[in-house]
Amino acid sequence: NAGVTQTPKFQVLKTGQSMTLQCAQDMNHNSMYWYRQDPGMGLRLIYYSASEGTTDKGEVPNGYNVSRLNKREFSLRLESAAPSQTSVYFCASRLGGSSYNEQFFGPGTRLTVL
Amino acid sequence: GQQVMQIPQYQHVQEGEDFTTYCNSSTTLSNIQWYKQRPGGHPVFLIQLVKSGEVKKQKRLTFQFGEAKKNSSLHITATQTTDVGTYFCAGPLSGGYNKLIFGAGTRLAVHP
User: Fold this and answer.
1) What is the DSSP letter of A16?
2) Where are the beta strands (DSSP E) in chain B?
3) Would the CB atoms of B31 and A107 count as touching at under 8 Å?
4) B43 preceded by cis ω (within 30°)?
5) Are A69 and A77 in contact (CB under 8 A)?
6) pLDDT of A56-111, one tens digit each?
């Protein structure tokens, strides 16, 4: 059981470049999430997918798009990277269906936009 | 909008001292979760509190949920260097049970 996996672990982009962050979970969870973490800001929700086939915006969705490819995989795309998107990105999954389920986080992707 | 606030933002203690972090929500929560993130790591679930006034213990860690279900605390007795990290509280986002709102976290440094 790998849990939640993310690729890549590190990435450096130039302003205007695009990239896709990959996330996969093997726990048969229904809900998946993308967060960004900036110093002193905690975890802010970018997008989430309550179940396969659905996605919805979180607190800070501007500049990002997502795809719930199947039940296992949830990707985050930056179409035109900006320095303000320099951050650590975490994917998380949850069994779903209830607020009482814990979230399981991936190891994170550390992204720098120059 | 809904807010979850944590204090202090940062605390450093000598090994063996106690530590407490507080979490305050602007709304009543059905439950509250606590996560720990080690330096360079990812958040890991510690515990969930559901009932008003609930107290749970995990070895040296004591978690409390307030009577009004709007605040919570985490107390660590006799800190050790392994306690270093950032502690986050999180509650369900109003109107969206599939989403959590996280506090900004309390970063704990422990000096040997």
Assistant:
1) T
2) 4-7, 10-14, 19-25, 32-37, 43-49, 55-58, 61-65, 71-76, 85-93, 96-102, 106-111
3) no
4) no
5) no
6) 999 999 999 999 989 999 999 999 999 999 999 999 999 977 778 899 999 999 99
The answer to whether B104 faces chain A, any CB pair under 8 Å, is yes
Q: Does A33 touch chain B (CB under 8 A)?
A: yes
Instruction: For residue range B36-56, list pLDDT tens digits in order.
Output: 999 999 999 999 999 999 999
Contacts of A25 in chain B (CB under 8 A): none
Residue B12: half-sphere exposure toward Cβ, Cα within 13 Å: 3
CB pairs under 8 A between A and B: 54
- Alpha-carbon gap, residue A21 to A32, rounded angstroms: 14
